[in-house]
Design brief:
17% strand; 39% helix
Length: 329
């Protein structure tokens, strides 16, 4: 059959019809909201390149996570900004470190909120790289025990899931062994399996104060041109014990998300990163884009590409929009 018998526009005529036949929907339950926590008291500082996103001291977290939970967002992922940095990132695995204190504060206030922790040394090292540096080169194997120690300290503080983002070879296996040996056999690992050396991380480095002091991260993060390599990275992380795998960034790597989704059966996460967020905010501020429609379209594209979980700085505003829609019905 062909036109005029077939008229594709019939199902686009009414909003109710469009909703009824919609193939992909984004729900608040799909989202994870990033939080930046720092030492000090009574701190809530907006990040200049990320309007609406703040750095919080631990004592300001209870009010924030109460609101996050009220909006129906099921999970947060924590990034720490320590008071002191050194060559080996020792604050990262200190039981009284900023993330460890934040985990306990959140779990005390909103125990049902899922707390995921980023496991990487870049925010904690004086040189800003994601591992131990020897002769200006990140030493993969010397970094693994520290990442395992960091993940274990998060588990002991009460984290629900750990998420290694460092891109060291073998780190998922090292973390899995460390957790299992200490009885945390049920704690899942969400691995940043395909993390690219992207220009879209710029605002995050301001937020987390984690810019490298020399060189860049291209020797351990992936080349943006490669997708077959991403599939190898994902397979290796699954083999080492990853329960959820992630592609980062999301928007410029939708093809990678789709390839990963088609190849593997485990849950897939995607990180809608800081630069992607900042671009939308800047364009919306200038009146060049309708912010709500743009955000919804972006999140839908990530879900349509195959992501089950979306880490996004838009989570709070998206959840608020959804609640407004429900209230208007």
């Amino acid at each position: 059959m062909d036109f005029p018998e077939v008229r594709m526009r019939r199902l686009r005529r009414l909003d109710t019809l469009r909703s009824l036949v919609r193939e992909t929907t984004v729900d608040v339950s799909d989202l994870v909201y990033p939080l930046f926590v720092m030492e000090g008291r009574n701190i809530k500082t907006e990040i200049g390149s990320m309007p609406g996103i703040n750095q919080f001291s631990v004592d300001r977290l209870p009010r924030e996570v109460e609101e996050i939970a009220r909006l129906g967002i099921p999970a947060v992922i924590l990034f720490g900004i320590p008071e002191n940095k050194d060559e080996v990132g020792s604050s990262a695995y200190d039981s009284e470190g900023v993330v460890q204190k934040a985990i306990r504060a959140i779990k005390k206030e909103v125990p049902e909120l899922l707390v995921v922790t980023d496991v990487c040394l870049c925010e904690y090292t004086s040189h800003g790289h994601c591992g131990v540096v020897v002769d200006k080169v990140v030493d993969n194997d010397k970094t693994l025990p520290l990442l395992a120690k960091m993940a274990l300290s998060h588990a002991e503080a009460g984290a629900d899931m750990v998420a290694p983002s460092d891109m060291m070879d073998g780190r998922v296996g090292a973390i899995r062994r460390a957790l299992d040996e200490k009885g945390f056999i049920h704690l899942p690992i969400m691995s940043y399996a395909a993390k690219y050396a992207s220009a879209f991380y710029g605002p995050f480095r301001e937020a987390a104060q984690s810019a490298p002091q020399f060189g860049d991260r291209r020797s351990y993060q992936m080349d943006p041109a490669n997708v077959r390599e991403a599939l190898r990275e994902v397979q290796l992380d699954i083999d080492e014990g990853a329960d959820i795998i992630m592609v980062k960034p999301a928007l410029s790597y939708l093809d990678v998300i789709r390839r990963v989704r088609d190849r593997f059966d485990c849950p897939v996460a995607a990180y809608n990163v800081s630069g992607e967020y900042a671009m939308v905010k800047a364009a919306a501020k200038n009146g060049w884009l309708d912010e709500r429609r743009t955000v919804t379209e972006i999140l839908t594209s990530i879900k349509r590409a195959g992501a089950d979980i979306i880490i996004t700085y838009h989570a709070r505003e998206f959840a608020a929009w959804m609640q407004e829609d429900k209230g208007a019905r």
